[in-house]
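So, can you check this record?

>
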Amino acid sequence: MTFSAAAAVCTVLACVWTFQFSLPAHLEWNSGATNQAQQTLVHLSRLPRGPDGARSEPCTMVSTGSIGPLSAPYKECAEYTFAGHFVTYDSVQSPEHGLGYTDVGAATFQDECSRHLVGEWWMYSPEENGVGACPFGYHFHGAA
C-alpha cells in the first residue's frame, strides 16, 4: 500500500514538473527561439504597411530544425499590426496546435485555447468537445 501511494505521488509530481516547468524552461533556455521570433518581427517592422495598416508576409514552411519544443516541419506566420505583433509556429502533423510569440497575450488566439509558457511565449490548441472546453492547463479566449 505504501509503495503504491509513493509511486502515485512520484508520477503526479513528474507530470506536474513536465507540464508546468520543463516546457516553459525549454523555451527560456533556448534563446534561439526568442531571437528567431524577434528577428522575424524586426524584418516585418521594416516592410511597407498594407491598406489596413498591417505588415505581413506569406507564411513559410520550415523543414529543418526546431522552435522550442516544436520540431520541423512547421509553418511560421507573422503579423505586425497597430494592435500587436506576433509570430505563430503551427505543427504540420497537427496544424491546429502550435506555439506563439506575441506581445498581445491570449488575445492573439481568438476562439482558441491557449496556455502561457514564459515571457511572450504561448501554446495554443483547439477546443475539445464544445465551445470553451480546453485541454488541461489551457484557457479559452473568445473573439472580441
About this structure: The first helix runs from residue 2 to 29.
